[in-house]
Amino acid sequence: MRDTNRAWYFAARPDGEPDADSFELRETERPEPTSGELLVRVNYLSVDPYMRGRMRDTESYAEPWDVGDILKGGIVGEVVESESDQYDTGDLVTGEGTWADYSVVDADDVAPVDPTVADLPAYLGVLGMPGRTAYFGLLDVGEPKPGDTVVVSGAAGAVGSVVGQIAKLNGCRVVGFAGSDEKTEWLTEDLGFDAAINYKTTDDYRTALDEVAPGGVDVYFDNVGGPITDAVFTKLNVDARVAVCGQIAHYNDEDVPMGPRKLPMLIAPRAKVQGLLVGDYATRFGEASERLATWVATGDLSHRETVVDGLENAPDAFLGLFSGDNIGKQVVQVSTPSS
Amino acid sequence: MRDTNRAWYFAARPDGEPDADSFELRETERPEPTSGELLVRVNYLSVDPYMRGRMRDTESYAEPWDVGDILKGGIVGEVVESESDQYDTGDLVTGEGTWADYSVVDADDVAPVDPTVADLPAYLGVLGMPGRTAYFGLLDVGEPKPGDTVVVSGAAGAVGSVVGQIAKLNGCRVVGFAGSDEKTEWLTEDLGFDAAINYKTTDDYRTALDEVAPGGVDVYFDNVGGPITDAVFTKLNVDARVAVCGQIAHYNDEDVPMGPRKLPMLIAPRAKVQGLLVGDYATRFGEASERLATWVATGDLSHRETVVDGLENAPDAFLGLFSGDNIGKQVVQVSTPSS
């Protein structure tokens, strides 16, 4: 018999706010790669807000998790068994794996990781799916022009922190909403945001925006929804663009949430509001990865990861996303990289 | 002293639903054109939903009316005095004038009218601002492709009726929402809509859409807002486009109206929602006018006007827009054309 493997399984669909009852850690036999596959020892596991959608029993862009399924997510790890010519044991790879100590992946579905470019967790953040989401969402949907005022909600998260910095590289004035003074200080002092609003200690977002974005809003990159978005929509300039990347404020709602109707607000500014999924840009991932890596190397793009230690704490790391525990990208360290 | 002139003035800003108290008919001296101007005997006057916005004391795309101002609007009429080389007395022109028997206009701001192409009221509808709004809103914002399913709210109105027919010319399946059986029959029997839903006698718009648009919605041209729009948003296909042209259901709301939050609905279909003002396409009005006139001439584009007789009834004609009294374009006949 092969060695054992710990893995998290989907135990129950949550109603509203998920909790530990949705997760079950099991010890099973370590999986075995077949032809074209790799067995990867997971070093880091990604937990992401979009996974809340996979907990629902409805078809959507991400395949729903069935109760009893092993949980899936982005990983970085080391190849320990290879049934593919593409990778040798010892190689570092990233791609979609499982919430487990060891994960079997198809060699065609992973990408190599170069630890000299950035630390491994960065491959789940700025150099991974969140970084690419920020890149295409801001540039292709938001279409920022120099001099534009760009507002970002969830600005200290994995996507928002990259959005704001790319907007600065584009010559924009950048304002971020985030949920703590530590976060807003990171945005303005380390990432170069022009202003940041702590939405938990600010009463009136519209007045706050009048102060830091007196010329109105040209681009709004929305990761959050709710009252922040309600306020920003009252400040849209003519020809404003809104990229709807996430709506984390509403992911745990069981009923359709109600709020101020926004369509009447779009006519006078002729604003454009567009939903965004990074998968639509798959043919251009190489472009994004190359530019993001260059900006990281030159220091134009700072990044930060919040690391929770131990596979056993993965559910807590996921649940913490909804209370904003993370600064930058939230990852789980499952094992220590061997080199 | 010159002859007299009857004209409507803005008497009071309404709260909520406007009524006759906002309008005052006065008899004054007939205005006199100065250099470059024309005195036009008004034959037909246009009343339009967007005018409700001009009754508010807020800057917007259309200049607000001040209390005491003479009311403005589109007119078709006959030049009776000319202080311009561009037009002679007896010429027919259209442009922005006043709610009056006689209106002074700048010769540079009006366009000639050819009564052999269409009857005069059509120049305030299919061949006027509403027709151009339909043309650019559908083609430039809605971007219809053959085989797309296009849904139109306010489908029997001045704009919606043209939108649906242009969508048919583009090879689309077209579904309209309208407020009476007479209207829905007009849409399907005379205008070639594939289906029409009487929103006043239908309880469940989502189920109704499932029947007539089983493949979902690719383009939604929204003139109305409210529950119709709430239902259509649940049916948006991947890459759907929503043109927000009007929101007549909300024009009389005094507070910001509440409704189901729609931004979370945009992510999975990556839908685009865009506000639209026809004035942005001013440099291409010639293109639209030429094509619309051709389609009218060939019979590809049907049109209908609801004519209220008498300047004294202009406020009633305007107020009737909000209860859907009109089929096609609502106009007021102020005088009989002299030829």
Q: What are the salient characteristics of this protein?
A:
homodimer, 339 residues, alpha/beta, Quinone Oxidoreductase, Chain A, domain 1, Rossmann fold, 7-stranded mixed β-sheet, 24% helix, globular, oxidoreductase (chains A, B), ER (chains A, B), Oxidoreductase (chains A, B)
Can you walk through the features of this model?
- Two copies of one chain form a homodimer.
- Chain A is of the alpha/beta class and 339 residues long.
- Chain A has two domains: 4-125 and 303-333, Alpha-Beta Complex (Quinone Oxidoreductase, Chain A, domain 1), CATH 3.90.180; 129-279, Rossmann fold, CATH 3.40.50.720.
- Chain A is built from nine helices and 16 strands.
- Chain A has helices spanning 51-54, 129-142, 160-169, 181-190, 205-212, 226-233, 263-267, 285-298, 314-320, and strands at residues 4-10, 23-29, 37-46, 72-82, 92-98, 102-106, 111-112, 149-152, 173-178, 195-198, 217-222, 236-244, 258-260, 272-275, 305-309, 329-333.
- In chain A, strands 3, 4, 5, 6, 7, 15 and 16 form a seven-stranded mixed sheet that branches. A six-stranded parallel sheet of chain A has the order 10-9-8-11-12-14, with helices on both faces.
- In chain A, α2 (129-142) packs across α3 and α2 crosses α8 (285-298).
- The two termini of chain A are 28 Å apart.
- The mean pLDDT of chain A is 96.
- Chains A, B: InterPro entries: ADH-like_C, ADH_N_2, ER, GroES-like_sf, MDR_fam, NAD(P)-bd_dom_sf.
- Chains A, B: Keywords: Oxidoreductase.
- Chains A, B: It holds the Pfam family ADH_N_2.
- Chains A, B: This is Oxidoreductase.
- Chains A, B: One of its GO terms (molecular function) is oxidoreductase activity, acting on the CH-CH group of donors, NAD or NADP as acceptor.
